[in-house]
Design goal:
about 80 residues; alpha/beta; three-stranded parallel β-sheet; two-stranded antiparallel sheet; globular
Length: about 80
């Protein structure tokens, strides 16, 4: 696995598991499966509407949260300075 070192010294994997178009029924299981095979970054977005299912997969995986990364894209209309 290749990593990028962030400004704070934390190493983040450059490859993550994406959950775009993963159904609500499959999302938690897919996240768990991805984490079991070694993924440590999950890529999701507000527009996917599966944040809760991603969270459940992370919560139940048994991997310390500080070892995981969640990449989350916010919808353009919610990006403001306030």
């Amino acid at each position: 696995m290749e990593y990028v070192t962030l400004n704070n010294g934390v190493k983040m994997p450059i490859l993550g598991y994406g959950v775009y178009q993963v159904t609500k029924e499959e999302c938690e299981r897919c996240v768990l499966d991805a984490l079991k095979v070694g993924y440590r970054a999950i890529d999701t977005a507000q527009s996917y509407f599966n944040e809760r299912d991603v969270g459940e997969g992370i919560r139940t995986c048994g991997i310390p949260r500080e070892d995981l990364f969640v990449v989350y894209k916010v919808a353009a209309e919610h990006k403001t300075y306030e």
